[in-house]
Write a structure and sequence with these properties.
The complex is a heterodimer. Chain A is mainly beta. Chain B is globular, with a radius of gyration of 13 Å. By secondary structure, chain B is an all-beta fold. In chain B, the strands form two sheets. In chain B, strands 2, 4, 5, 6, 9, 10 and 11 form a seven-stranded mixed sheet that branches. A four-stranded antiparallel sheet of chain B has the order 1-3-8-7, with no helix packed on it. In chain B, strand 4 and strand 5 form a beta hairpin. Classes of the chains: A mainly beta, B mainly beta. At the A-B interface, strand 5 and strand 6 of A face strand 5 and strand 10 of B.
Chain lengths: 112, 114
């Protein structure tokens, strides 16, 4: 079946620290992979995506590389800001079926 | 363009009451989804639709019904609300055709059942 496992939080970092949020997946077929971000009181917004192995998605200083050999899609940012405080969700879309599969979310707090 | 909108934003119900949540989109997307978000459980799919007049069950459909009479609207109904349905509900849409297309989310409806 299809599933996503995400690093549990919460994560607290100081401003300008390096961020990694781990995400691994199980999928039948060839999935596309996504990172969504949810700011307090809002809906989810797409942060970045990758649609095939070895693709790197990037946006707003965040990056994630689709690693088929390790079935992973870890989110990284070199220098976090207070404004990055949010909940981050890893998700996959399989090439069979119509559904997305979400991880449980990782809460990030960045302190000045 | 408004994107995906949800009505209402907040609602408090008593056990046994009924209500309907409305999701509206102006992006002409074929697919629409209803999720609930609970602490520590991420997003769970309730029902979804792959086009006007179609609906399908997701992971947690019990206690909910849906309808998609018009392409732009997807309604989620609770016939007899229970405290276990206290949650934040999100609607999402997706363009047809490809599994690499992302979902677009509404702002959510916070529902409390007393």
């Amino acid at each position: 079946g299809n599933s996503v496992t995400q690093m549990e939080g919460p994560v607290t970092l100081s401003e300008e620290a390096f961020l990694t949020i781990n995400c691994t997946y199980t999928a039948t077929g060839y999935p596309s992979l996504f990172w969504y971000v949810q700011y307090p009181g809002e809906g989810l917004q797409l942060l970045l995506k990758a649609t095939k192995a070895d693709d790197k998605g990037s946006n707003k200083g965040f990056e994630a590389t689709y690693r088929k050999e390790t079935t992973s899609f870890h989110l990284e940012k070199g220098s976090v800001q207070v404004s990055d405080s949010a909940v981050y969700f890893c998700a996959l879309s399989a090439n069979t079926g119509n559904q997305f599969y979400f991880g449980t979310g990782t809460s990030l707090t960045v302190i000045p | 363009n408004a994107g995906v909108t949800q009505t209402p934003k907040f609602r408090v119900l008593k056990t046994g009451q009924s209500m309907t949540l409305l999701c509206a989109q102006d992006m002409n997307h074929e697919y629409m989804y209803w999720y609930r978000q609970d602490p520590g459980m991420g997003l769970r799919l309730i029902h979804y639709s792959v086009g006007e007049g179609t609906t399908a069950k997701g992971e947690v459909p019990d206690g909910y019904n849906v309808s998609r009479l018009k392409k732009q609207n997807f309604l989620l109904g609770l016939e007899s609300a229970a405290p276990s349905q206290t949650s934040v509900y999100f609607c999402a849409t997706r363009e047809l055709a490809s599994y690499y297309n992302e979902q677009f989310f509404g702002p959510g409806t916070r529902l409390t059942v007393l």
